[in-house]
Write a structure and sequence with these properties.
Blueprint: H1 7-25, E1 27-31, H2 32-37, H3 39-45, E2 47-52, E3 55-60, H4 66-72, E4 87-91, E5 100-101, E6 107-112, H5 121-127, E7 134-140, E8 150-156, H6 158-178
Parallel strand pairs: 3-5, 6-7
Antiparallel strand pairs: 1-4, 2-3, 4-6, 7-8
């Protein structure tokens, strides 16, 4: 059986590379759907379950971070099936035997980059609100052999992403005027 190269196949491969990249680099991750499904227990217990490879990692979230996770962990807009970002990631290095307490610097939102566009309107709005950084995860040539795949993480604060978008917009306006 041979597979047709579809957008769905490319997205699935991107997800696999993201999850494996996390595991190899000491990061655990939680899809935003899982975060959304855990919001009630997060508020009461302060614990989220992350994945690292085949393992589950229970992470205690500091109280001051919970409101942001609650806000971003809801769907993008009423009636929308998606979320503003794709994952919440936590740097854990080794698989702990018990619950670990997340250092705020060890947490970040994650967006898997597909295509040329960087952020949607909802994501730009979220960038102005988040305190945790956002990692833009990109796989170059997702159809290449695994040893030839290039993975890139770009982690910045919401403000730094917004500054970069402003600079890009100014450059495009300048280029339009020049040509």
């Amino acid at each position: 059986m041979s597979l047709e190269i579809t957008g769905s196949l490319k997205e699935s491969l991107r997800e696999v590379y993201y999850r494996e990249g996390c595991a190899q680099q000491g990061w655990a991750y939680s899809p935003l759907q899982n975060v959304h499904d855990s919001l009630t227990s997060l508020k009461s217990e302060g614990i989220l379950v992350f994945e690292k490879g085949d393992h589950s990692v229970r992470v205690k979230i500091m109280q001051q971070i919970i409101p942001e996770i609650y806000e971003i962990g809801r769907s993008a807009s009423p009636g929308s099936p998606g979320f503003v970002f794709d994952y919440l990631a936590c740097q854990v290095k080794n698989i702990p035997e018990s619950v670990i307490v997340a250092n705020p610097e060890a947490l970040c939102w994650v967006k898997l980059r597909t295509g040329r566009s960087i952020f949607t309107e909802e994501q730009v709005e979220a960038l102005s609100k988040i305190k945790l950084p956002l990692a833009l995860f990109q796989v170059r040539d997702v159809l290449a052999s695994p040893r030839n795949v290039e993975i890139k993480w770009d982690i910045r604060s919401g403000g730094q992403w917004l500054d970069m978008l402003d600079e890009k917009k100014e450059q495009e306006e300048y280029d339009d005027e020049y040509f």
